[in-house]
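This is your field. Have a critical look at both lines of this record:
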Amino acid sequence: MPLVFAGILPHPPVLIPEIGKDHVKKLAKTQAAFKALEQDLYAAKPDSILIISPHGNVLNDAFNINLCSDYKANFKDFGDFGLELSFHSDYMSIQQIRAADESNDKVPIVLTSEENIDHGFSVPLYFLTKHLKSLPIIPVTYSNLDYQQHFEFGDFLYQQLSKINKRFAVIASADLSHKLSKTAPAGYLAKAKDFDKKIVEMLRKKDVDGFLKIDPAAVKEAEVCGIRSIIIFLGIIKEMNMKPELLSYESPFGVGYAVLSYKPV
């Protein structure tokens, strides 16, 4: 079994104590959920983490895997100039995935090489790898292709991971609506709360068809950044008998933060 851990997590920089300071207390549920997943990840003993971010280098017609010897992350854009993180690359696994893509035109992949990774990667990894700092990563960024192609890309990734003799963890980094309150960063949308509820319910049911039928215009209107990350994730786990568990959902700053664990049954 290639997958030993799977989860969906948000990426709020405010959750990091050096950035959020007193505001961290407003994310107590998310903080507790992150801690629970960190313990689960440690117990799963993965050899590598594949993590999907909705930020960074998003290409129009191809999925992006960042192949670099090592990665760095900082939080200068969020007001902290002291905290820096570093991660190792699962270089060989990325090469194997890319080699398989050369004969598969359904899931176009582009390898880029960027040392600095965005907060969509670094925030979840900051918490999940506290006791696994040497664990290598596979940073994947979604594309502007349609939802079906994202699902097929996820299935492709699963098929390739299955051929590699390693224990993999898979993480989808995904915030939900950014328009949940009048103080939200993207403004307020009255129907955004119902939209988030619908997404969370579909996640709890592993409702792939529901996600593939979501209107992209509605996603854009609600400012949901993580739908494509989630769809890739669902494509990866579709072959696995995994039970979803909603660990937390809250939105104290007008952005929806859901944390879900998917455990083998």
